Amino acid sequence: MERAIKLKVRKELDGREQFNVIKLKGSLISKGYTEIIHILDQDDEYHINSFETPVESRNEVKDFIAAFISNENLTHAVTVFK
Predict the structure, then answer these.
(1) Mean pLDDT of residues grouped by 10 in the chain (82 residues)?
(2) Which H, E and C letters describe the chain, residue by residue?
(3) Is 21 exposed, middle or buried (0-12, 13-18, 19+ CB in 10 A)?
(4) What is this structure's pTM?
(5) pLDDT (tens digit, 9 = 90+) per residue, 60-75?
(6) For residue 6, how many C-alpha atoms fall within 13 Å in the half-sphere facing its CB?
(7) What distance in Å separates the CA atoms of residue 2 and residue 77, rounded to the nearest whole number?
(8) Apex 1 CA angle, 5 and 34, nearest 5
(9) H/E run at residue 63
């Protein structure tokens, strides 16, 4: 496995956004896409959340995250990169 997915998450979130970001991370773990999510500060506005996932699952995981972000209206709170 390699650290394949990174999420840029805004630090200032409202209650709904906080709940849904936690729900996204929990879903990634419960679906078996990863076991742990690493969180680092990028700057005063954003955290970087990164996690390892099997190479063969990378596109499926990115599709899941994109759908989740869209369905939960998190486009201003979470961005996928790398």
Answers:
(1) 81 97 97 94 96 91 97 96 72
(2) CEEEEEEEEECCCCHHHHHHHHHHHHHHHHCCCCCCCEEEECCCCEEEEEEEECHHHHHHHHHHHHHHHHHCCCCCCEEEEC
(3) buried
(4) 0.90
(5) 999 999 999 999 999 9
(6) 10
(7) 25
(8) 55
(9) helix 58-71
